[in-house]
Design a protein that fits this description.
This protein has 73 residues and is of the alpha+beta class. It is 29% helix and 38% strand. β2 and β3 form a beta hairpin.
Amino acid sequence: MQIHIPKATIRISTRAANSGAIYAAAAKYNAVTSGETYNDRGELEVTITCDEENSDQLKDAINDATSGGTQYT
């Protein structure tokens, strides 16, 4: 029997200087990052996938770590 764990996927945009904080928060909640890109404004855009039950805590951790400097797209 296989157990299905619901996943949540979020796409964020933040200053590139926040990248370390983003990846640390993702690691804390065992999230997977993908699709990393940097735009011409020096912003990191990345997709983060985590267990659905951890998604609110992950968003809170990202907001705290970036002083609210993250946009969810």
